[in-house]
Hints:
- This protein has helices spanning 31-45, 87-111, 125-128, 149-153, 160-173, 184-192, 243-254, 269-281, 293-300, 322-328, 342-347, 362-378; strands at 4-5, 17-24, 49-56, 61-67, 70-78, 114-118, 138-143, 178-181, 200-204, 228-235, 260-267, 285-288, 305-309, 333-336, 354-357.
- The protein is α/β, with parallel strands linked by helices.
- It folds into 2 domains: 4-204, Glycogen Phosphorylase B (Rossmann fold), CATH 3.40.50; 222-374, 3-Layer(aba) Sandwich (Rossmann fold), CATH 3.40.50.
- The strands form 2 sheets. Strands 1-9-8-7-6-2-3-5-4 form a 9-stranded mixed β-sheet, sandwiched between helices. A 6-stranded parallel β-sheet has the order 12-11-10-13-14-15, sandwiched between helices.
- Helix 7 (243-254) packs across helix 12 (362-378).
- The longest helix has 25 residues, at 87-111.
- The protein starts with a strand and ends with a helix.
- The model has no long low-confidence stretch (mean pLDDT 93).
Amino acid sequence: MMQLLxxxxxxxxxxxxxxxxxDWLPPDFGAVGQYMLMRAQALAEQGHDVTxxxxxxxxxxxxxxxxxxxxxxxxxxxxxxxxRGSLVGRMLWTIxxxxxxxxxxxxxxxxxxxxxxxxxxxxxxxxxxPLKPLWRGKLVYRITDFHPECLIAARDxxxxxxxxxxxxxxxxxxxxxxxxxxxxxxxxxLTQTGIPADRIALVRDGSPVSFAGDTQVEPLPAELxxxxxxxYSGNYGVAHEVETVARGYELHHKSGSxxxxxxxxxxxxxxxDLAARFAAAGLPFHRSSPVPLERLxxxxxxxxxxxxxxxxxxxxxxxxxxxxxxxxxxxxVLFVGSAASDVDLLAAPAPAGYWRVPCGDADGxxxxxxxxxxxxxxxxx
Length: 381
């Protein structure tokens, strides 16, 4: 399924040459890179000459191909993983990586009729916007995650340095020609910073995979065979709610029926935290790495239901893009998060079923697991 546009920001007749800058491109794991590759391919098929610049854990490469009415050039820069253990290390990695991306794309950027950049890696705006006099093309910012707002939301105390960075970021945002947001919650956040509504387009990601009838379902791990399985897939990072899940799951297994078993096919600090807490408490669960994109549809068809979480502080700053594929898989969704998030807007009407538990409501999470288990027993999931 391709992105769902209110309107395409680029006209093939007026903006023939497009440059897209993202972070990790497939087969490396990264939702933004997956979607930007899809976007680049779609624009090329519509007749654009597209240059996609991103990162790769493999050797750097440049590949050109004809697609539909246009052509696509992929420039992949070899990069080391983000040093997530150190904030200073991450910032230095981000600065160096952003400079490399801009330098690699400099020629195409100068010639481009349209430029699309994302929030991953963060803070590209601090290079692209000041250099805007050099770019003749329209500069469009696709805000996947808000930065530095996400850094601020992750902190317990205010930071003067981050406050200054936020002010500077908002200054440069006002210099950008147009914006794409992933949801209505992000649109609200952006308009609150003073960006006019007519410069903002809602461009939803959609599912990166299809669920054709011949999709081969991923087998359940042996220890989960015959169980009522709740799956969390993808990144489980600092923006995702952990405490409610940890406490509610423990309640379900120590005070409830314990019939639902969690499968963490995930990376990130949240996944590490949950795995450590479950192991220490002796709770049953299964942990595995995320699967490659070509196996994702089969994985998402495997469980009884999907778990999606988002901390309240990140509503409107982060949109869990996995929600589209979870809904299209035809499986129910259990969302731990706020009704103000577009996750609730999208998942609540889904015919397969939906539970929403507010952050902090561990009893509500345990109760939702009991309802899920009852559905399993009745054969309705």
